[in-house]
Amino acid sequence: MARWLRRLLLIGAAGWIIVLSTHCHQPPIETPGAAVEEPAHTMYVIRHGWHAGIAVRTDALGEAAWPVLDDFAANEAAHQAEHRYVEVGWGDAGYYPNPSPGVGTLLRAGAWPTASVVHVALFDRPVQQAFPRHDIVAIEVSDEAVQRFAAFVQATFEGERPDPVADGHYYTSAFYPSRLSYHVFNNCNHWAAAALQTLGCDMQPALTMRVEQLLDDAAHCGRAIQSAP
Fold this sequence. Notes:
Blueprint: H1 2-21, E1 41-48, E2 51-57, H2 58-61, H3 69-75, E3 85-92, H4 103-108, E4 116-123, H5 127-130, E5 136-141, H6 143-156, E6 166-167, E7 172-177, H7 188-197, H8 211-221, E8 223-226
Antiparallel strand pairs: 1-2, 1-5, 2-3, 3-4, 4-7, 5-8, 6-7
């Protein structure tokens, strides 16, 4: 009986892994070609606990700027000139926007495919001043790399310009629905690693489970410029 039960559990676990893996679809990743791309901008990877955000100057996005950014321009037109940087992150729709998630929310996030959201935040101060107590990695990138990154993020949103579903965590920010499913094989660090891969970084999104690993791999693509005290 014990042998039969173990075999049943193994079959069930294997089936569950297959179910989850079928939902592990990131936005399309465009990798750089053979031509040398001259650095023109700086991207920043910022650790926020178990999550990481990726920031860039808003003017670097150019025509590839995400349509959702118009929401902030419409709501705070008088302050739009101050929005020099934009940061994006991705995570579980139940856990990420919740300022005080309980244990149940934590366990649910990743246990099976759930809805997800994109966090979009605008700020003015230099990145290290805006996040003085965070681990930060800086990566020098080309115009072409920023365009690939922008396309990857845009493909993450649910539709071209979805409506916000919750207020963001800081600065001028909001959460937007994502078309992706969140689960243990497609978590926030997988997404961030895939986003950095569009910049030409040597990342392994499928194997990037923890934020510490994400920051270490990002540092090999750029340089660590700040460590949390």
